[in-house]
Amino acid sequence: MDGADIERCVELEQLLFPEDDPWQAVSFQSELAASHNLYIVARDDDGRMVGYAGLALLGDTEHPEAEVHTIGVDPLCHRAGIGTGLLEALLAEAGKRGGPVFLEVRTDNAPAIAMYAKHGFHIIGLRKNYYHPSGADAYTMRRPELMGAGAAWDAARGEVLS
Fold it and tell me: Which of 45, 90, 112, 116 could bridge across to 55 with cysteines, CB 3.0–4.6 Å?
């Protein structure tokens, strides 16, 4: 993702999260400026952005961890594997450093929760009234560190590959 993508990200935020204070351009600019963040986009065959995702690479080399900040997919493109592809790209980047990966997800977002579970995430907590202004609750989910160099998660089998 680069600065030219921000306008479309803001447009998608308005579509996806109207009741939860969608990010404005300044939020995306701040996220892109942080050296520990990685933001990526997915495009259709015509080059139109249809999804975006962001990851924070946190901790240090001895105790790394990562946090998925956001994944958004154009509602017209849901169920096409775009969210899964974005998540897998973020997890591949996090896997280069090692450590667990965390995220928050609305408790009523069953498709996202299922996608995260297929990629090794487990619910570890509940954050009441996490999203504002709607007051929706969020689950905190964690995927443990994958052990071994080049380890990857096999979503189809629900296991770690080495």
Answer: 90
State which residues form the domain around 142. Answer: 3-161
Residues of the chain with pLDDT under 70: 147-162
Known catalytic residues? 104, 116
- CA diameter of the chain: 43
Give me the number of domains the chain comprises.
1
Is residue 128 within a helix (H) or strand (E), and if so which, with residue range? none
> What residues pair up with 65 in beta bridges, in sequence order?
58
> CATH code at 140?
3.40.630.30
Burial class (CB in 10 A: 0-12, 13-18, 19+), 143: buried
Tens-digit pLDDT profile for residues 112-133: 999 999 999 999 999 999 999 9
